[in-house]
Amino acid sequence: MQTQLETIYARLCAHFGPQHWWPSRGGAFEIIVGAILTQNTAWTNVEKALVNLKRARLLTPARIQRVERARLARLVRPSGYFNQKAKKLKAFAAFLRKKHRGSLARLFAQELGALRAELLGVFGIGPETADSIILYAAGKPIFVVDAYTRRLCARLGLAGADASYDELQQLFSAHLPRDAALFNDYHAQLVMLGKYFCLKRAPRCGTCPAREMCTTGKEVIGNW
DNA sequence: GCCCAGGTGGGTA
DNA sequence: TACCCACATGGG
Q1: CA at A2, C1' at B12: how many angstroms apart?
Q2: I need a labelling partner for A7 at 20 to 30 A (CA). Which of A18, A43, A50, A178 fits?
Q3: Are A93 and A64 in contact (CB under 8 A)?
Q4: CA A44, A45, A51 angle in degrees (round to 5)?
């Protein structure tokens, strides 16, 4: 299994090149905002919302907390689910102020397990968002599982289609070195694979069988 | 017009 | 626990 997962990663890298995902120039808070805004949403739409927030100079926890919710919703509108997401952003800002006096450094100073448990308690932060924050904003080694990871594992037979988030995460973290940089880029590579090679919900590239990865995708990562 | 996107929370049985 | 459904814009 270790060989398989490492080989898959090596082939993805060879095909797509390094992805340089987060952290971006914006810093940890912008990563957290992005992680919330990208829930079930294309990143291009998230970028528009981030531009709006940046232009309005609202990309700090304190300002997110102070701004009127309706205005916040208007600004994040391009990312979809804008009312929900405005509420989620405010929930995070309120949590941070209450629990850590508004300091991300204090939040991140915790041990990984405690940090994850705390994040999961915040409205709007589920397992994937929590892990994205831990990995991309806090820089701690945890593997982020997303829809593409799930479909890839199912289609390669590495896990059942009904495998839980925790089971899939366990699969990767048990068979890869515990390395934040590796986890960071691996997740990004899987998203690339998913975007371009029929790991969509209902693949319809015209040549691949339903619920299968297309030939090109298999060539990229190999047949297992 | 239809499908999909770097999910999550709430309700019901 | 295991399903459902609401949430919503923008691009292909």
Answers
A1: 42
A2: A43
A3: yes
A4: 90
Domains and CATH numbers, chain A: 2-20+144-221 (1.10.1670.10), 28-137 (1.10.340.30)
Identify whether the C-beta of residue A92 lies closer than 8 Å to the C-beta of residue A133.
no
Does A205 score more than 60 pLDDT?
Answer: no
Total number of residues shown for chain A: 224
Cα–Cα distance, A190 to A137 (Å, whole number): 19
* Rounded distance between C-alpha atoms, residue A154 and residue A194, angstroms: 13
Q: Is the pLDDT of residue A223 over 80?
A: no
Q: Does residue A57 register a pLDDT over 90?
A: yes
With a CB cutoff of 8 Å and minimum separation 6, the contacts of A208 are A198, A214, A215, A217
CA of A14 to C1' of C6 (A): 41
Report the SS3 class of residue A2: helix
CA of A99 to C1' of C6 (A): 30
Q: Which helix (H) or strand (E) holds A73?
A: helix A69-75
Residue A184 pLDDT more than 90?
A: yes
What confidence category does residue A23 fall into, taking pLDDT thresholds of 50, 70 and 90? low
Q: CB of residue A52 closer than 7 A to nucleic acid strand C?
A: no
